[in-house]
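Reviewer comment 2.1 asked that we show a complete input and output for one of the modelled complexes. We chose the magnesium ion case, as it is the one discussed in the main text.
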Amino acid sequence: MQEFFHSVTLDRDKCRGCINCIKRCPTEAIRVRNKKAYIIAERCIDCGECIRVCPHHAKRATCDSLDILNKYKYTIALPAPSFMAQFNNLEDIDIVLNALIDFGFNEIFEVAKAAEIVSAATRKLMESRKLPRPVISSACPAVTRLIRVRFPGLIDQVLPLHAPIEVAARMAKRAAAAKTGLPLSEIGAIFISPCPAKVTATKMPLGTEKSWVDGVVAVSDIYPKLLGLMKDAASHEIAMLSETGKIGLSWGSSGGESSGLINDNYLAADGIENVIRVLEDLEDEKFRDVDFIELNACSGGCVGGVLNVENPYVAKTKLYRIRKHLPVSLNHLEDADLADPKLKNDLSWDTPLEFVPVMKLDEDVFEAMKKMEQAEEICQSLEGLDCGSCGAPSCRALAEDVVRGLASIDDCVFRFKEKNGYVPAPFRSEQVGVKDGKEETV
Amino acid sequence: MSGLKWTFEVDGNDFTRAGEASSSLKKKLRALGVSPDIIRRVSIALYEGEINMVIHANGGTIDVEMTPDRIDMVLKDTGKGIPDIEQAMQAGWSTAADEVRSLGFGAGMGLPNMKKNTDEMRIESTVGVGTTVYMTIYIS
Ligand SMILES: Nc1ncnc2c1ncn2[C@@H]1O[C@H](COP(=O)(O)OP(=O)(O)OP(=O)(O)O)[C@@H](O)[C@H]1O
Ligand code: SF4
Ligand SMILES: [Mg+2]
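Response of the prediction step:
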C-alpha cells in the first residue's frame, strides 16, 4: 500500500462528529465513527472543502512553520500570484517583494513569473496540436487529483506541464545554485501558499518523482508579519524586483490561466461542484469545440484558497487593479525548444498521470460488478434520505461501504428505529406548521 | 537645450510583449528621479497608447523627448487608422477583439485615459495609412 501524506487533517478534540463535512466532500472521503470524522486517506484530494465548511474548525491544513527559513543557507520566497491580492491599497508589487526580503528571504522568484512561462509553453503546445482537445489545465492539484481518482477517461487530456509553483522552484534553485555556488540541498525554495492542496502536491507530487519545492508556508501565517515591513518598505527607495506582467498575475483568479492563451475559445470553471459538473459533461463529450478548460477547485480560483486572508471577490478586484497597467507578459519562450533537456526538466511532466481507482468496489472486475449489484439492491432498500446519520455521506455510500464490509446496513438510523416501531419525522403524516387544525406559515 | 531622447520599437505581431516600452520608460524616469505623479501619468498615457498600437494597429515607433519642463511622446503606427476620431475618444467605444478582453482590455477607456493624464493630446489618423498620437505632459 502506498503511503499517504495529506495536508488536510482532523483536530480530534474539536470534532463533534457532525455531518457537515461528509456531505461536502467531493470524493466521499469522510465518514463519522465514534463521534469523530475520519478521512479515508487514499480518497482525499486536499481540496479544503471540509476546512471551509466545518463549523467547529476541526479540519486544518498542515503547513511548514516560518522557522523553515533557518534550515537553509540560502532561501528563495515563491509568492503565489493571489498573494498580491491580499493587501489594501497596494500600488506596487515591489513593496511586497521588498518586505519579503526584509523578512529574511535571500531572494524572490514570483510564481507569477513561472506562470507566464507556463502560459508561453502552453501556447506552443496548443499550436503544435499534439494534445487531445479540449486540453484540461493541470495547475490546480486538487483538480488533477480529482481527475486521477474519478475521471480516468479524461487523464489523456490533462496538460502534461508542471504547475507554475514547481516550475518556479526548479528555475529559481538552478539559478541560485549557479549564482551562489551552493549545493541545491542548501538552497530552500519556500512557497507562500493559498492552499493545502499545494502542500500535498509538493510532498507527494503528480507528474514527477520529487518536487523541488522545499517548504510551504501559509499565506495566513506570513501575512501579519509582512504588514509592518511593508510600511517600512513603502517609506523609502525600494529595489525593483518584480518580473511579471498581466498574464502571470491573472493566474491568481479564475480565468487567468485561460487569458494567457490569447485565444477566447476556452471555458473556465471554479468551485469544486462546478468543476465536477464540467468534468462529467466532458466525459460525455460535451464541449468538443472548446480548446482549453481551466478548472479551479476554489470559488473564484486561487484567490479563494482557504489559507488566504482576503475575501475572494475583493481579492479578485484588487488583483485586477494591480495588473491594470502592467505589460501583457514579461516572460517569453520565443524560439525555445520545449524538447531541450533543461527546459523539459523545468516544465514538463516526467511521470505520467495514472488512474487510481480508489472508488471501485473490488480489484476483480466480475467481483466488482457483483458488489455493485448488491450495493444497488441495498440502496433500494434504504430510505433514500441521504441524511448522513449513519456516518456515510449518502445512502448509496453506505450501501457501498456495506458491500465493502466496512459498515452494516443497521447503521441506518431509520431502519434501526423502524424495527422498534418508531416512525421518523420525514415519514409521519402530520404537516409542518399545522397546529390545532389551522395552517401556520413556517 | 536639447533634451533626453528615447525611441522604442513596438512589435505589432507579438501581443504578449505589449506594454514593455512604457514599463521600460517608467524604469528610466524612476532612475532619473522624476516625481512619482509625473511618472504615473506618463506611464499610464504611454501604456494605453502602446497597447492600442498593438491591438488595433500593426505596431510602430514611440519617440519620447524629455526636457526640464516637459515630456513629449509621439506614437506612430502604420495600422488601419481611425475612421472617426471623435467617436473613438468616447469612453466605452471599442472595437477590440474578444481574445484580449479576458486580460481586461477592450473597455474603450484607453484614449479617454490618455486624454485625462496628459496636458495636451492630438491624434492624426488616415484610414489605411496609419495613426500618430502626440501627447505632452508638463513637468513643473
Ligand atoms: N492606434 C490605433 N489604430 C487604430 N484604431 C485605434 C487606435 N487606437 C484606438 N483605436 C480605435 O479606437 C477605439 C477606442 O480606443 P480606446 O483605447 O479608447 O479603447 P480600446 O482600446 O478599445 O479599449 P481599452 O483601451 O479600454 O482597452 C479602439 O477600439 C479602436 O477602434
Ligand atoms: S484553486 Fe488554487 S488555491 Fe484552490 S485548491 Fe486549486 S490551486 Fe489551491
Ligand atoms: Mg485602448
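The mean pLDDT of chain B is 95. We note this here for comparison with the apo prediction described in Section 3.2.
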